[in-house]
Amino acid sequence: MITSADLDRHLRTLPPEQRRPPDGQPLQPWLEERLFEVFSGRVLANTTEAEEAARAEAFELDVARAVDQQLARRWLQRHNAEFELTSEEIAAEFERFAPQMRSPERRVFRSLSLAAGEAELDERCDEAGRLAERARGGESFAALVREHSESANARIGGQVGPVERSQLRGEAARVVFALDQGEISHPVRTPNGCFVFFVEQIHPAIEPELALVQSDLAQMLAERKRAEWKLGLVRDAAEETGIELPEWLAQGRLPDLSAIDSDAVVLETGERAFLGRELVQMVRRSGPEEGIDRLQASVLAAAFARSAPDVASVVQEQQRRAQLTRAAQEALFERAVAEAPADELEALYAERRDELLTDARIELQAFLWPIQPGEPTRSLARPQEFLAAVTQQSDPDTVDRVWERLGAGGRTVSLPETAVRELERTTPQLKEMLATELTEGAWLGPHRMGNEIAVARIVRYLEPRQLSYVEASSRLRQLWFEQNRESVETSLRQELGERFGFVVRQVRAETLGELLAAVQDSGQGAGEVPANPDAP
After folding, report:
1. Which of 108, 131, 218, 500 is deepest in the core (most CB within 10 A)?
2. Average pLDDT score over the chain
3. For residues 262, 263, 267 and 270, what is the CA-based torsion angle, rounded to 10 degrees?
């Protein structure tokens, strides 16, 4: 029997806005939905579908994760602290981060380079001067660079930037940041040749204002204080329960994942032991913050379980039942999808076939050079020279020879054939590089990837193609379920109701409060599951 108290407890677990029928929706159908939720929670956990789910290897891990999160949340609530921020603290935070928030002046410029030894330097600088005069007379500076310059970036018109002054060296920094926008320099003599610079754009410096960033700073400061407070609770909880925290976890940071032994225990919290491979998987799946949070939650949960074992036992049972219910529901949905009518799937394929395509797939070979601190322009020179050399040759062996000459200090990486969409998701730095027309044998870059400059060759590229009906079967069933979810859910409710003999009693009431009172007064349940010897 489902009593009014059961229904009331269920309603209290819902967000406040879902505890009453939406405006305009009749009470009875909304109430039947809620009753069925209570009913489902009771019977689904005892179905054969739930039993099968419980045998899956990942099931107990999912339960443990859910229990840890619930118990850790209760421990944090028990020790809750409020963080009041003063204007002085926010102002101090502003002073601390102001240099990082300041955006210095940046410039985009082009350079024309004529290499020369000491003996011919005068002659080459005269030639550079004549080219500068032609540019001042109206000729395209970029075109003159492409035709005459001997620098690695000549093929792109000698463009550099936007760059800050600190990213340039010597005469280049002095001259480029002394010119006005649109101004062309006189020839600049260096031991290696003569240069002419043309400033295309100037991006003025932007000074931070406290009023504009105050709310962001306050949020950042509060989050940092709360993280420090939580880390302190984790240390205290570990000491209280006798859990040995690894040094990196006690400091709230991750270790070098490449140095972790996958079979070694990285943290043991009573009944729970985390292996190295689990930590690596958590970080790769959800990010470093999630990995740390998961381990911290297990420590806090152990402390709560030690202080309130009875409550922890109830939470354990609730979460296990919730996981069983969820797994059984998913299994029933999967069964319904597997039984989708063939004629409806065929009609859906005919309607959506132009959208049912394979993912584009790509295999890359990347060549990477480290960015030298304070020298982005010089760091770009070798990748550009490498790209210019290999794109002018068709012999694959040429790539190896050019790399031997220009790859000093760099590294190569082969990326196996992967879906382009998956590659963009797992390696966001490649997204910009792949945002172009992709063809087999083409070269991409140079592009910045973190602290490196990358040039990549497309070794293999498979364009998207239309899926056959058989290949699209799984996707078609997903689309069918999206279109028919409401009717599938209704059908499953009817099936479960018939399987377990669930009925809804009719009680006259105008409001939810009247209904609960009426059911309570009558001593009847709002819904009943009659005795059924065949039910689990």
Report:
1. 131
2. 80
3. 150
pTM of the predicted protein model = 0.55
Give the confidence band of 343 by pLDDT, cuts at 50, 70, 90.
very high
Percentage of the chain with pLDDT > 70?
Answer: 86
User: Which tokens belong to 329?
Assistant: 């529901």
Cα–Cα nearest to 245, from 232, 231, 235: 235
Contacts of 13 (CB under 8 A, 6+ apart): none
pLDDT of 518 higher than 70: no
Higher-pLDDT residue of 405, 367:
367
Q: Are 505 and 527 in contact (CB under 8 A)?
A: yes
Phi and psi at residue 183, to the nearest 5°: -90, 145
C-alpha 99/C-alpha 95 separation (Å) is 8
H-helix or E-strand spanning residue 462? strand 452-462
Task: Give the single-character DSSP code of 473.
Answer: H
Buried b (16+ CB within 10 A) or exposed e, 22-31: eeeeeeeeeb
Is the pLDDT confidence value at 459 over 60?
yes
In this prediction, residue 197 carries a pLDDT of 92
pLDDT at 517: 60
Catalogue the E-assigned strands of 142-228: 159-164, 188-190, 193-203
From CA 485, how far away is CA 333, in angstroms rounded? 9
DSSP 103: B
CATH for the 106-203 domain, from 3.10.50.40, 3.40.190.10, 1.10.3720.10, 3.30.70.100: 3.10.50.40
Enumerate the β-bridge partners of residue 160.
109
SS3 243: coil
Q: Decide if 196 contacts 149 (C-beta within 8 A).
A: no
When mean pLDDT is compared across 72-86, 202-216, 509-523, the lowest value belongs to: 509-523
Amino acid at 279: L
Q: Phi/psi zone of residue 441: left (φ > 0), alpha (ψ -120 to 50 degrees), beta? A: left
CA–CA distance, 255 with 243 (Å, rounded to integer): 18
The DSSP secondary-structure symbol of 395 reads: -
CATH 3.10.50.40 correct for 361-462:
yes
DSSP 356: -
DSSP conformational letter for 58: T
Helix axes 288-307, 210-241, angle to 10 degrees: 50
Supply 218's token pair. 């306050």
Taking 80 as the threshold, does the pLDDT of residue 143 lie above it? yes
Can 106-203 and 361-462 be said to share one CATH topology? Answer: yes
Over residues 32-36, the mean pLDDT reads: 74
What integer is the mean pLDDT of 84-110? 82
